[in-house]
Amino acid sequence: MRLPEEGYLLRIFIGESDKHEHRPLYEWIVLQARDQGLAGATVLRGIMGFGANTRVIRTFKIERLSEDMPMVVEIVDTKEKLEEFLELIDPHIKAGLVTLEKAQIKFYRAEKK
Fold first, then answer.
1. Per CATH, which fold does 6-104 belong to?
2. How far apart are CA 56 and CA 64, in angstroms?
3. Can you tell me the distance from the alpha carbon of 74 to that of 42, in angstroms, rounded to the nearest whole number?
4. Is the alpha carbon torsion for 109, 104, 78, 2 positive or negative?
5. In the chain, how long is the greatest CA-to-CA distance?
6. Any idea where the domains of the chain sit in the sequence?
7. What mean pLDDT do residues 49-58 have?
8. Digit-coded pLDDT (tens) for 64-95
9. Is it the case that residue 21 has pLDDT exceeding 60?
């Protein structure tokens, strides 16, 4: 798959405890991205944060493990494909933040076997 030099980055901020049909929401989003043929997806687990639903700081500390850490799903592809994907997943994200920004793609390649 080739990506143009100018792509877009879709960033989805949700909570670790968010679900879609008894499955973690971030996992469902990644599987949908794969099924829709997007270039790739990465999930990042935050070590500290807060959001629109709560002003309580969630943090990863040994003495106090939070059960709802921030999760970020990042996907880079063309603007058109990402906007179409966002229409698919939007109804399933009950709380969170989604951003779409320009990204300069330097390379996208798979290891040659």
1. Alpha-Beta Plaits (3.30.70)
2. 13
3. 5
4. negative
5. 49
6. 6-104
7. 68
8. 555 678 899 999 999 999 999 999 999 999 99
9. yes
- What does the chain come to in residues? 113
Given a contact cutoff of 8 angstroms between Cβ atoms, the answer to whether 20 and 30 are in contact is: no
- DSSP codes joined into one string, the chain: ----SEEEEEEEEEETT-EETTEEHHHHHHHHHHHTT-S-EEEEE-SEE--SS--SPEEEETTEE-SS-EEEEEEEE-HHHHHHHHHHHGGG--S-EEEEEEEE-----PPP-
What was the pLDDT predicted at 110? 79
Closest by CA position to 18, among listed 60, 64, 73? 73
| 96: pLDDT strictly greater than 80 | yes
- pLDDT of residue 2 exceeding 80: no
Rounded CA-CA distance 96/8 in Å is 19
